[in-house]
Amino acid sequence: MTDMTSNIATDAPKKRSGEKTEFMVYFAIIFVATLPLACLTWALAAIKSRSFTDKGPMARAWTQARIITPMIFNA
To answer: Which domain holds residue 57?
Structure first.
């Protein structure tokens, strides 16, 4: 019988140290770029619903950056 649990971590492809840094730089740029529009849409939604309990502008921009950045790296 084969032991499949012994060398799992060594079989995984290793990332370059610069890939994470590059990802974080792109993430930061996209986050800053989406922040003004997120503030505007949050303010309009808050005025329309008369409630500030919805997701705030920082969370909205963070979510958009989390969606857009991996799309750039997968292309």
So the answer is: 35-75
